[in-house]
Amino acid sequence: METSNLDIRLVVEAPLNLSQINHTPFYCEENVYLLCKKLCTSGVADAGGSDLFVAFISNERKQVPLWHQKASMRADGIVLWDYHVVCVQIKKEGNSPHLVWDLDSNLQFPSPLSTYVLETIKPSFQLFSEFQRFFRLVHAPMFFRSFASDRRHMKDTAGNWMHPPPLYEPIIAQDGTVHNLNEYIEIRAADVVTNLGDDSVDAVFNQKLGVIVSETQLEEFVSLISR
Question: Which alpha helices (H) appear in the chain, and where do they start and end?
Fold first, then answer.
């Protein structure tokens, strides 16, 4: 991912320290892949990742404003990303809040979904329609099997790295695919789910590229998944 140049919190006890998680700046999709794996192996999430969803945030212009980002040089923490990726953990038991794990945020880690939407998406802030944020939600078990990146998007036309890559080997999908990141970050308003319901919930569990919802649909859709 690239940049283009009131705190209402529920108390969430962070079960993981950021220092325990592999993080390479500007490689948010790989960071979240590894984060989800860590949540599974540490017992914070279901061992198979059934309660985890990878959320790609972008739009057709590849310009999405998000607040409280560590990469920001502004006091309000706003960054205009081409795309961003976070993990959403959907809780089905008791009154536990749904959580957002954003490794690039300076909010509480993790943050309750409602807090994250309020502070990072800022739905009350008036934006031009071309800056609307859309969310591609992909079930983590599907993501583990299908995602691949050879990091070609981080090289310039001369083949030089625009940002240093992670030290570990690139992620390859189970079927041998070496790169399909472009499929996940291709997000269009025309592909947003028009009716939230059982069909869209089934799709998020069964489709490789998940389901795209608008910023105004996000919390309702998460609630439907958690039923």
Answer: 28-41, 113-116, 140-146, 181-185, 198-206, 218-225
